[in-house]
């Protein structure tokens, strides 16, 4: 196994650990510590998504142009280092006095660090996996383990001090920079990166002319985007099943940790599953599991059932993630893989989420989480049917093949 595989696995572990410390209890922090209602929490997530929309195209273009160079990853790590002091001394106080200014500043920092950064890091490691011949899923599982480790302690550290988790993210970023320094960059990147004379404007124009993007967007908009909106405030709903918020936070942290450990195991196995089921079928199956989880979350009424439903995430996410990268590599030019993943998937998810977050937050306040989840589950079912016809069938990719 290459040294880059080991280093990139550790980098994913540390990055997701930092992200988990900051975001696994983020909606709970907004609701219970800052005191925002569901509508305002929805506004926060909407603005976060809008800011991510502005960053993602830049990240996608730059990373495809940089190929396997690490410059952009250092930039992302720098913003993670800012999380602790930013949240404690700028973000939290401003949410009480200048809500919209705080939301915009927070959206910018969180997007540069995590919301747009994660797609860039995953895309970079996918490029490395194809350059040095290792399976992306086997490296990505370490990211899940990092999230699991952080989420296990996140509830406890939150109860000690609500801002402690954000400082732990900053500490993790220092480690991240150290590990990045040792990652080797392949000398021959001709198959991974476009020509240096290919300007960002031309690259972006070429991206939007890529045939077949609309097929993938049907699945992304109707399944991934709806799921992202559902997941934004799920932690708030989950804690309502317990006698006290403190108990709910602790149990949520433990459950998330168990879920992500299981997710890491599934990520290791998912490559074989996707190869057996087929790429298109795996994407559709992940959508079915998401629909079941969302709809049933609005039906069950006890903490054990809602906890078991949350564990479904450990199966649906690995299936979707591995199948998505395989779909991109199967049907699109490898030179644009970062842009397709970051803009075609991550960007689209954030775009639709930003449009839906506020409205869904208002629905939560008026009809409650349970009924709203049932509606969202039914919407995903409709798009799964549409995706069955829209997604391209599996095919063996050749050098001259182009998507239609």
Automatic annotation (TrEMBL):
The chain crosses the membrane at residues 7-29, 41-60, 72-92, 98-121, 142-160, 166-186, 207-230, 250-271, 283-300, 306-328, 340-364, 370-391. PANTHER family: 3-PHENYLPROPIONIC ACID TRANSPORTER-RELATED, BLL5896 PROTEIN. It is found in: Cell inner membrane. It comes from Shewanella vesiculosa. It holds the Pfam family LacY_symp. Keywords: Cell inner membrane, Cell membrane, Membrane, Transmembrane, Transmembrane helix, Transport. It is a multi-pass membrane protein. Its main location: membrane. The keyword Magnesium does not apply. InterPro entries: LacY/RafB_perm_fam (IPR000576), MFS_trans_sf (IPR036259). SUPFAM superfamilies: MFS general substrate transporter (SSF103473). This is Oligosaccharide MFS transporter.
């Amino acid at each position: 196994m290459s040294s880059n595989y080991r280093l990139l696995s550790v980098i994913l572990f540390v990055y997701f650990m930092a992200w988990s410390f900051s975001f696994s209890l983020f909606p709970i922090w907004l609701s219970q510590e800052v005191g925002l209602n569901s509508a305002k929490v929805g506004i926060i997530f909407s603005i976060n998504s809008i800011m991510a929309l502005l960053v993602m195209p830049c990240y996608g273009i730059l990373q495809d142009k940089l190929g396997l160079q690490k410059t952009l990853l250092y930039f992302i790590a720098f913003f993670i280092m800012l999380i602790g002091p930013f949240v404690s001394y700028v973000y939290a106080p401003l949410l009480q006095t200048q809500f919209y200014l705080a939301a915009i500043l927070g959206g910018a920092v969180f997007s540069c660090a995590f919301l747009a950064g994660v797609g860039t890091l995953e895309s970079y490691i996918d490029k490395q996996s194809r350059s040095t011949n290792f399976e992306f899923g086997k490296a990505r599982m370490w990211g899940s383990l990092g999230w699991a480790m952080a989420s296990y302690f996140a509830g406890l550290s939150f109860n000690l001090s609500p801002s402690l988790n954000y400082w732990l993210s900053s500490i993790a970023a220092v480690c991240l920079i150290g590990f990045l320094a040792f990652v080797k960059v392949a000398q021959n990147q001709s198959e991974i990166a476009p020509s240096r004379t290919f300007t960002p404007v031309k690259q972006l124009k070429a991206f939007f002319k890529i045939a077949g993007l609309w097929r993938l967007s049907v699945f992304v908009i109707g399944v991934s985007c709806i799921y992202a909106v559902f997941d934004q405030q799920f932690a708030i709903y989950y804690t309502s099943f317990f006698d006290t918020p403190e108990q709910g936070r602790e149990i949520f942290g433990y459950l998330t940790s168990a879920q992500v450990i299981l997710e890491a195991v599934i990520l290791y196995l998912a490559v074989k599953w996707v190869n057996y089921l087929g790429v298109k079928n795996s994407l559709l199956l992940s959508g079915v599991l998401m629909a079941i989880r969302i709809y049933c979350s609005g039906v069950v009424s006890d903490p054990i059932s809602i906890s078991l439903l949350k564990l479904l995430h450990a199966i649906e996410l690995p299936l979707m993630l591995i199948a998505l990268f395989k779909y991109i590599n199967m049907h699109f030019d490898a030179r644009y893989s970062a842009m397709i993943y970051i803009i075609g998937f991550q960007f689209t998810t954030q775009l639709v989420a930003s449009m839906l977050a506020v409205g869904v937050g208002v629905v939560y306040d008026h009809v409650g989480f349970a009924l709203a989840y049932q509606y969202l589950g039914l919407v995903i079912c409709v798009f799964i049917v549409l995706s069955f016809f829209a997604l391209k069938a599996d095919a063996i990719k050749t050098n001259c093949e182009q998507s239609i």
